[in-house]
Structures are given as structure tokens and as C-alpha cells.
Amino acid sequence: MIMRLRRFCAPFISYLEAQLRLARHRLQGRQPPAIFLHSLFRSGSTYLFNAFRNEKGFWCYYEPLHHQLIEIRRDRLAIFPFDKITTDKMSHPPLTRPHFYEFTAVLKNDHIPFFNIRMSYSEFAAVRQHARLYKYVMTLLVSAPDKMTPLLQFNRSSLRIGWFRRFFRNALHVYILRDRRDQFESYFRQGEKYNIFLAINLYIIASNGRSWKFAQAYAPYKKEFRVTHDLYYDLKRLAFFAAELDREVHYRVFLHLWLTSLVEAKRHADIILDMNRLSESPEYNQEVVRRLQEQFTLSPSIFSGCHIKRYDRYCMDDSAFSAIEREVSETYRKELAALNIGNLGEIPAVLV
């Protein structure tokens, strides 16, 4: 009984601690201006990360909630290859330094203070470790070198934008939006027999099944998969298991995440950045630059190399996509109506 009560109270106590720390840091003026990029995978976020990294004055942290951060060491920062062959295969821009290079600023005894992998997926839709996550992000912010603006490029924060904005009001919160069908196709083309991106989607839905209305997306594979205490085992198993599921199951899972992330962004983000328009419209590109220049110093050509892929062919036909879009938009009809987003089956793929 005592242990159960302690677990029940822990998030509330943690939230109070985070609020107290926030109040003290505001009085001390310790929270620096920053940019937080929030997105799902395959959105173009690595392009933006690299664009800001190539600017003078930004200290850019790559995917601060990535579960593999527990693997990096000072002498082993390049846990991901960043040669041209690999980055081209991933449709990523060429990188001049390891993805996690900037984490050298926070590494202590070969580990990152306060970070743990529960932050990556188990709390994808709702923060429970309020104080720990707050301390972790503050450590990243204050560890950036003098006179450099910290930029945090998240790929696992899209359903926690409200939390991040509540606790980090000095940051500009940008949500990265990509056409939903192109984004899903980009997921799908990362591998049909072994696909870690589809696996992560399945894991997020399974481990956050009580959030939003994810039970609907989880139902088709609930009997075959239950979350264990071993994240690496679960993801490897799901990466193979993904090939056994119909594409409609994967798109439904993806669309639940895509749509709820958009709702969260509409509620809380300062900017919703449309990557398709950034790539295709010079006028929109410069409009975004001017908006960012209101708060930060950056070159007018920062996004001149933006190219977000459009696909001529997809893994499903239009009728299959549309049926799932109607179904999922009906599931979230109230949330969409409250934000004037509309029915996904009846509006253009790019919303903003």
C-alpha cells in the first residue's frame, strides 16, 4: 500500500519540485533564450538542425530525448555514422561533426546528467518525471558556450509541447510539420523487412495506450506485443514484427501520432513551420527567416538549401489513405473542431 501510494504521489511531488526550481531560476534570470524544435521523425528536422549548426552563434543539441544517448562517451560520440553514403541513405544533409558532438558540454564521467530512457517513449504523451526532465533540459541550456544560443532539436517531444512551453517560456517553440502522406512514405521506405521508425511508432502507441485515444491504434497488435522492461529488446522485436502488419495498421498508428501532435502544436507552439512550403515557396522561406530574425541573429540564406522530398508513388492507394484519414479525424473530431483544423479526409494534405 505504501509503495503504491508513493508511486501515485511521485509525479505530483516531482511537478511541485520542478515548479519551485522554475520560480527560482526566473528570479535569478537563469533561463537563456533558446530555440526548441519539436517534431515527429522524418519531418526534415535534421535539415533544420544542420542549418542552425552551420550558423555562427548556435549550439545545437541533436535529439536530446534519443534513447541511445545513454551509449555516448567522450571517446565515442559518433555512435551513428555520418559519412556521405549514410546521410544520403537517410535523406539527411551532410554533417561535418558527429550528431551528438555538442553533448560534450554536458558529459560528466561519461554519462549525461539527469537523462534516462523513460523520457524517450514511456513519457512520450505525458511527463511524470517533471523535476528530472526540467533539470536535464536546464543543464543543456546553461552548458552552451558563452554568447551561443542553445537549440534543442527534439524528435520525441511533439505531445509534450505544452509542458516544455510551461517550463521554458524564454524559448521559441517551433513545431515542424510535413505533409502526412509524404512523411509516412519516408518512414516506410526506411525498410520493409526491418524498420526501426515503424517500430518506434508501434512502441510509442503501446507504451502510451491510455493517452489520447491511442487504444484504437494499439488494438490490432495488442495481443502480439506488450511492453517489457527492456526497451532495446522491444524495439528490435518490433522492427522485425513491423513487416507482419498491414500498411493500413502502420498508417493508422502514424496518423494518430501525426494528428495529436498537430493538435498539441496548435495549442502550444509559437510557430508551426511547414517544411513543404519552406522547400517550395521562396516567399514563405523568407517570411520564416524574418520571423526568426525578430529574436535571433541569423543569415537571410539559412534555409536556401531546403529540399523536402515529394513522392510520385506511395505504398498505398488514395482510397486506403482517405479511409483511414476519415476514421482517425472522426476519432478526434472534437479536438479538431475546437482548433478549426477540419476533417483530414476533406482538406489538402498540407494544413499550415
Give an overview of the whole structure:
- The protein is an alpha/beta fold.
- The chain has a single domain (2-346), classed as Rossmann fold.
- It is built from 14 helices and five strands.
- It has helices spanning 2-28, 45-53, 84-89, 130-142, 161-167, 180-188, 196-207, 215-218, 231-241, 247-268, 275-280, 282-293, 318-331, 333-338; strands at 34-38, 58-62, 149-153, 171-177, 271-274.
- Strands 2-3-1-4-5 form a five-stranded parallel β-sheet, with helices on both faces.
- Helix 7 (196-207) packs across helix 10 (247-268).
- It is globular, with a radius of gyration of 20 Å.
- Mean pLDDT is 92; it is low at 346-352.
In short:
With 352 residues, the chain is of the alpha/beta class. It has helices spanning 2-28, 45-53, 84-89, 130-142, 161-167, 180-188, 196-207, 215-218, 231-241, 247-268, 275-280, 282-293, 318-331, 333-338, and strands spanning 34-38, 58-62, 149-153, 171-177, 271-274. It has one domain (2-346): 3-Layer(aba) Sandwich (Rossmann fold), CATH 3.40.50.
